[in-house]
Write a structure and sequence with these properties.
Order of helices and strands of chain A: HHHHHHHHHHHHHH
Structural class of chain A: mainly alpha
Largest interface: A-B, 46 and 54 residues
Mean pLDDT of chain A: 84
Structural class of chain B: mainly alpha
Distance between the termini of chain A: 32 Å
Shape of chain B: globular
Radius of gyration of chain B: 24 Å
Oligomer: heterodimer
Shape of chain A: flat
Low-confidence stretches of chain A: none
Largest sheet of chain A: none
Strand content of chain B: under 5%
Order of helices and strands of chain B: HHHHHHHHHHHHH
Chain lengths: 299, 314
């Protein structure tokens, strides 16, 4: 068997040598993680649509019109109109804002509380840790959607309550990861060094341990984003999430969706595509972020 | 081993007691009970009548006492009465359990049937177009909302057959039943199979990197023998543990799927009970789901010991 000579130049460029400019680095990352690049593209699309919904939407998403009730796609309404004659395209564009608000809002809220609890639990140990661990066990035994359902129902339907309802099941998840990270970090020599020069425990926890949990936190947060968007859609679909007249994608599919399957399929197809693309993008992005930041878990 | 089982059982009891307190508190922390809902919809409110209803339902008792009534009843097999139908909660819940159980079992069957082999193929063909294709499929499985998938299936049935496979009457025979359940089960199972596939793939890749695999290859074992004879057995082990996670995952999917397909199981019943604030039903159902998840995880841990001789619980 002939030995293949090593092409040094090709190997080097494959490993990313000589990539200097910022744009070059971005292009290199995109080439290394093509699926992640697609995810980032979809996520930025969602972000753009959500922020500029007012400019992008051709019509008022909540303005009803009896004349165009259940009008099919084409003509005046590009994607058709719903039961109340509202323009579906405009509603989907504005729905991006709701999805984004709930997705990002609940992820950020859930992660913040999760980090505080996880850090305190892993750093203080003792009875505090014991009790939080038990509570986390209990909360994790309930499926995310069941937990969110009970929370949403007891808080009542509104945008803020939906964010809270979805963020709470995320808390134990984040807290557990941050705690186990904190446990291993507190044994590190740099923590010992900080102690040796007389730094206070709180300062060590915040200044030295916390920044080191950032990578797993980002991995977790991006992974949870898709789940949060999906849970919002499910809650709204079941009528326990975002109330009318807010154009939530899940809500658009709710109630009479089984009826629309026969009479107005566009009302089922387009909002579903919007949800799927948003969640798909978030999941792709989450996978790539995990591969980049946490090589041990690389798939 | 016996000591381990005893300890785990005690821990389970603590978890379940804690869960019952959390569920109970969550449902009562916020204003608005069934009396409010009924009287709000009636428009006219006679405070005396409302107070009488609250008394009758035990809603005016102090909250710790209400909790005690629930738990002591639960331990004696008395789940209270549904506020809405006024039937014993057990009579409302029990007949719905087999329906959801069958659906869940079928969905789990589908998810393992597709998820496991495809995950192995994806790992063995790592970074080939086939692997990329399978990974995109599995990720889209996790991204499609199960209710939307269910609606698309209904749509396909309308287009091709002109009817929708929606639950109307209880099925007559086993074959009809299987046919009726297999469609919603596939909708739920697709999502779960995506999860299994991802885990199988990463677990298989992990195993394929190990020394004994390299040794086998060095000794000239064929690819087939290495992949399926040496690697697969060890790669499947961690996948078993996720059946516990899967139980929680499936229930989430069942909630929306039962709603779309109009299946009278416990998952759809939970949503209805939540909408009506039918506390006895909600708290018992959520508790039931919790018990199932906790028990599944316990059984999976025990199963793991018998499958993997390297693991011993002390």
């Amino acid at each position: 068997m002939a030995i293949k000579p090593i092409d040094h130049a090709a190997e080097l460029s494959k490993a990313g040598a000589g990539v200097e400019s910022r744009l070059g680095k971005a292009w290199f990352l995109a080439k290394s993680y093509p699926l992640g690049a697609v995810g980032l593209f979809l996520f930025l699309g969602l972000l753009f649509t959500g922020i500029f919904a007012d400019v992008l939407a051709p019509m008022d998403p909540v303005k009803t019109n009896a004349d165009t009730s259940l009008q099919g796609p084409g003509g005046q309404h590009m994607l058709g109109a719903d039961m109340m004659g509202r323009d579906l395209l405009s509603r989907i564009i504005h729905g991006a804002r709701i999805s984004l608000a709930v997705g990002l809002g609940s992820t950020i809220l859930g992660c913040s509380f999760g980090v505080i609890i996880g850090l305190a639990s892993g750093y203080l140990l003792g009875w505090f840790d014991l009790i939080t661990q038990r509570i986390i066990d209990i909360m994790q035994a309930l499926p995310l959607l069941v937990m969110a359902l009970v929370m949403a129902a007891s808080l009542g339907p509104s945008l803020e309550n939906t964010v809270i309802a979805i963020s709470i099941p995320l808390v134990p998840h984040v807290a557990r990861v941050i705690r186990s990270n904190t446990l291993s970090l507190r044994e590190m020599p740099f923590v010992e060094a900080a102690k040796a020069i007389g730094m206070s425990e709180t300062r060590i926890a915040v200044k030295h341990v916390l920044p080191n949990t950032l990578a797993p936190l980002i991995v977790l947060a991006t992974a949870q984003l898709g789940a949060a968007i999906l849970t919002e859609a499910s809650l709204s679909f079941l009528g326990l999430g975002i109330p009318e007249p807010h154009p939530s994608w899940g809500r658009m599919l709710s109630e009479s969706a089984a009826e629309y399957v026969r009479t107005a399929p566009w009302l089922v197809i387009f909002p579903g595509i919007a949800i799927s693309l948003a969640v798909f993008g978030a999941n792709l992005l989450g996978d790539a972020v995990r591969d980049i930041l946490d090589p041990r878990q690389r798939s | 081993m016996v000591a381990y089982i005893v300890r785990r059982t005690l821990l389970m009891a603590v978890t379940l007691i804690g869960m019952s307190i959390i569920i109970f508190a969550l449902l009562r922390l916020v204003p608005g009970n069934i009396a409010d809902i009924l009287f709000d919809s009636a428009g006219f409110v006679d405070p005396a009548e409302k107070a009488a209803l609250e008394d009758e339902l035990g809603l005016s008792d102090p909250i710790p006492l209400q909790y005690w009534h629930w738990i002591s009843g639960l331990l004696q097999g008395d789940l209270g009465f549904s506020y809405v139908s006024e039937l014993p909660a057990i009579d409302e819940i029990a007949p719905r359990i087999p329906i959801t159980a069958k659906l869940a079992a079928l969905a789990l069957f589908f998810s393992v049937l597709f998820g496991l082999p495809l995950g192995v193929i994806s790992a063995v063909k790592q970074n080939t177009p086939l692997d990329y294709f399978l990974r995109v499929i599995s990720l889209s499985g996790l991204s499609l909302p199960s209710f939307w998938l269910a609606l698309l299936i209904l749509m396909a049935f309308v287009t091709w057959f002109g009817t929708i496979p929606i639950y109307t009457d209880p099925p007559d025979n086993l074959w009809d039943e299987l046919l009726l359940y297999s469609i919603p089960a596939a909708a739920v199972g697709f999502r779960s199979s995506a999860l299994i596939m991802r885990l199988t793939r990463s677990s298989m890749l992990e195993v394929l990197r190990q020394d004994y695999i390299r040794t086998a290859k060095a000794k000239g074992a064929s690819d087939r023998s290495v992949n399926y004879g040496h690697a697969l057995g060890n790669a499947v082990l961690p996948v078993v543990t996720i059946i516990g996670i899967e139980a929680a995952f499936l229930i989430g999917g069942l909630i929306v799927t039962e709603t779309v397909f109009n299946i009278p199981g416990i998952a759809r019943f939970l949503v209805e009970a939540i909408q009506w604030r039918d506390y006895p039903i909600v708290q018992n159902l959520v508790m039931f789901i919790g018990v199932i998840v906790v028990l599944t995880n316990f059984l999976v841990d025990l199963l793991y010991v018998s499958l993997d001789p390297r693991i011993k619980y002390e």
